[in-house]
Amino acid sequence: MVDESPPGARLELEVPDEATGTRLDRFLAGRVGSRARAQTLIDAERVLVDGRTRPKRHVVKGGERIEVDADDRADGADGLVDAREATDLVVAWEDEYLLVVDKPAGLVVHPARGHRTGTLAHALMHHGARGGEEPWRAGIVHRLDRDTSGLLVVAKSDDVHRKLKAMLAARRLRREYLALVEGQPPARTGTIDAPIGRDRHDRVVMSIDTDQPRDARTHYEIEQLFPHAALLRVVLDTGRTHQIRVHLAAIGHPVCGDPQYGTAGLYGLQRQFLHAARLAFEHPITGEAVDVRAPLPADLRVALAVAGREE
Fold first, then answer.
1. Which position among 64, 158, 260, 304 has the lowest Cβ density within 10 Å, counted as fewest Cβ atoms?
2. Catalytic residue from among 145, 147, 193, 299
3. Neighbours of 182 (CB within 10 A)
4. Looking at the structure, do residues 177 and 222 belong to the same domain, yes or no?
């Protein structure tokens, strides 16, 4: 069995019986150089277990076949490249312990397949982001899709990162989004409680029709009605990949402009109308109330105007 991967290696491993019960990232750590590198490869979907992507917490079983694309020659040893390629950030709130950034649409949060440079993680290197086991996304507590704009909280130390992650898990970090959806929900408020995972038939998208369900709960309230659309304020209990987009599509009201789950180009949109508008929490060190809001970007304001004019 291969114990360490040289640059450019592609590994094919079979899990021995004695490794049954081990987390995937731990199993791969000694074979790719470190646990942090294993997590980087897993999150970048460069690891397949019996032909399927799995999360780093996946527990391996004897006989499973694992394929690893461990070619990091273009990425640098830790998955990050020269920080000078990072984009400028809009910092909405900051102190010595943490910061809240207003991410623009089009910016990827951390390096992954096809996005090795120019990510939010690179930009955060200039702002003292620290914390977590993965240096390639230091300080990042939660994420947004590339084409979703709005607020993210970022830690500046391991201690603050741990505390913020615990608050997120305990639902003590309130995340509110604004979403313009197709059609008008029948009730002013609602809760969508439906597990989400990789779609059974299309592994690229997420779905409630899945063999790998994970609990997901989304609350919404109508903010404004338009002739053929509705602006919703959405609150998350969980944070699954594409959760808001999948849940709203599942009830027949996909996010406007969503190229994967709705109608691309609606109201002139070049992306989905989804914006992380508010982030509220108790400061993990000082205990003060932190309540940050981000206005709608210009492209979303234009889309609202178009939706309002439609007959």
1. 158
2. 145
3. 21
4. yes
Assigned domain for 126 exists: yes
What is the per-residue pLDDT across 41-52, written as a single tens digit (0 to 9) for each? 887 778 899 888
| One domain, residues 234 and 287 | yes
Mean pLDDT of the chain: 85
Whether the Cβ atoms of residue 124 and residue 139 lie closer than 8 Å to each other: yes
What pTM was computed for the model? 0.71
**Residue 194 domain flag:** yes
- H helix and E strand count, the chain: 6, 14
Q: Name the token pair of 293.
A: 């809001």
CB atoms within 10 A of CB 239: 15
Residues 292, 260 share a domain: yes
pLDDT digits (tens, 9 = 90+) for 162-191: 999 999 999 999 999 999 999 999 999 999
Q: Is 147 a catalytic residue?
A: no
Do the beta carbons of residue 169 and residue 128 sit within 8 Å? no
Largest Cα separation within the chain, whole Å, is 66
Q: How many domains in the chain?
A: 3
Residues 57 and 131 reside in one and the same domain: no
CA of 204: how far to CAs of 45, 52, 186, 236, 256, in Å?
A: 11, 11, 30, 23, 20
Residue 160, helix vs strand vs coil: helix
